[in-house]
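Bug report (template v2)

What were you trying to do?
Predict the complex of my protein with magnesium ion.

What happened?
Run completed; filing so the output is reviewed.

Input:
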Amino acid sequence: MEKTLVILKPSAIERALVGEVVKRIEQKGILIVGMKMMQLDEKILREHYAHLVDRPFFPMLVASMMTTPVIVMCLQGKDVVEVFRAMTGATNGRKALPGTIRGDFSMSGQQNIVHASDSVENAEIEIKRFFRPEEIFEYNARNIRFIYADDEI
Ligand code: UDP
Ligand code: MG
């Protein structure tokens, strides 16, 4: 089944929102198949945010992502990339709709609580960037038949 990469950013750690985000993932019926805390460095952030290196806010973004350790998660579910992006909301917390993670917990265009992969292709690349293969667990939720219809699995 499809996988996506999520980062609980320093804004989530410092504001004690880890449980809130994890709760939403669990309640939705999305399976956590990898999860660990790590300290990001400039090398991995330049890779991860390569599409933003020329933007004026890039140095501030990199610095902010290194202020505390982060929690990286690999999530699994049907269409989970699209589903979790929708749960995340627009990049700027002030524009993100209420009901989304950023819409409910962020007032910032930068300190916006979570990163979420934006396509299936990028999710594959990002999962490899942050996890070793043995850190991703292949298992099925016991209640999977109550999360999906038989023809959705
Ligand atoms: N960002 C920022 N200022 C901006 C745009 C983005 O600080 O004007 C930060 C913000 O933390 C965002 C991250 O850079 O989450 C990655 O930007 P992207 O455009 O990929 O947005 P996302 O995919 O996170 O919604
Ligand atoms: Mg992005």
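What did the reviewer find?
Residues 2-78+118-152 form a domain with the Alpha-Beta Plaits fold (CATH 3.30.70.141). The CA atoms of residues 98 and 104 lie 5 Å apart.
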